[in-house]
């Protein structure tokens, strides 16, 4: 909400045809508005939309409503995926760049997972690498779909809607079919609206994740993506346990009534499946990936 208001305020100044002192006065006024907004929200819980709504002026509320009922995507900055970074090729004797290490710190933290051989004595299926691709492609699409801002329960619901390996334990024997499966599920989904351009971006993102930041560290992005998924699954599992209780006791404020967070369209998830099936399968996948 705050990002939208600040963006609208900045655009208002850019569009005004002002000259001389009027420009300076307008900029000063805009700075005052932003400072005033900061002062009003500094002690509030930024996750409490109703509390934020209560401190907005009438003009700010009108601006926010106009944007929300229009094209929100044109106002919010586009998320830059962490897997877009590629280390430059260097000679063997060159010292590694500190910038490379700094970027890896911005990736999701790698989870500490048991090795596959400690979980089972069964030899991994040759399909495991293609199954990983199916999971990674689903993850890449959904991360962009939500512009990097994710709600765990909503994210997992959408991922399970397009990832056949996780939702139905489907095995894949080819890289292309593992990725194309995600594309087709996106087009068939009742939860997702997409187009061919977005699906091509998903395919390219999957390629970048599988390639990694560099040839000598090519599995890092894949490990990071699977680790992030494990974290999201854990959060969704916890969220699923409490969401019903919270909804029953939560009183709606003005903002919640005007902009209801209606997630009733999402299919219900089973906590048992989340706990014992999906997280276990992702843990095994991450274990295999850790040995790549």
TrEMBL record:
It comes from the Eukaryota. InterPro entries: ZNHIT2 (IPR039646). This is Zinc finger HIT domain-containing protein 2. It comes from Papilio xuthus (Asian swallowtail butterfly).
């Amino acid at each position: 909400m705050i990002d939208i208001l600040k963006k609208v305020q900045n655009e208002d100044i850019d569009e005004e045809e002002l000259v001389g002192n009027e420009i300076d006065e307008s900029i000063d006024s805009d700075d005052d508005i932003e400072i005033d907004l900061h002062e009003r929200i500094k002690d509030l819980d930024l996750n409490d939309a109703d509390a934020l709504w209560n401190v907005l002026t009438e003009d700010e509320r009108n601006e926010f409503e106009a944007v929300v009922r229009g094209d929100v995507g044109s106002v919010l900055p586009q998320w830059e995926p962490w897997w877009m970074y590629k280390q430059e090729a260097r000679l063997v004797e060159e010292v590694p760049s500190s910038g490379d290490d700094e970027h890896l710190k911005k990736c999701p933290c790698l989870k500490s997972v048991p090795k596959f051989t400690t979980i089972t004595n069964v030899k991994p299926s040759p399909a495991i690498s293609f199954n990983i691709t199916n999971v990674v492609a689903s993850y890449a699409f959904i991360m962009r779909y939500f512009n990097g801002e994710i709600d765990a329960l909503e994210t997992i619901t959408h991922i399970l809607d397009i990832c056949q390996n996780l939702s139905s334990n489907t095995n894949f024997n080819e890289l292309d079919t593992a990725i194309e499966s995600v594309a087709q599920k996106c087009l068939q989904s009742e939860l997702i609206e997409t187009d061919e351009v977005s699906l091509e971006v998903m395919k390219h993102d999957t390629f970048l994740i599988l390639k990694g930041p560099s040839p000598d560290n090519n599995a890092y992005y894949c490990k990071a993506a699977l680790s992030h998924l494990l974290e999201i699954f854990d959060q969704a599992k916890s969220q699923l346990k409490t969401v019903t209780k919270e909804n029953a006791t939560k009183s709606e404020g003005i903002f919640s009534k005007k902009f209801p967070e209606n997630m009733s369209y999402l299919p219900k998830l089973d906590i048992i499946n989340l706990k014992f099936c999906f997280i276990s399968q992702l843990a095994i996948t991450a274990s295999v990936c850790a040995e790549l």
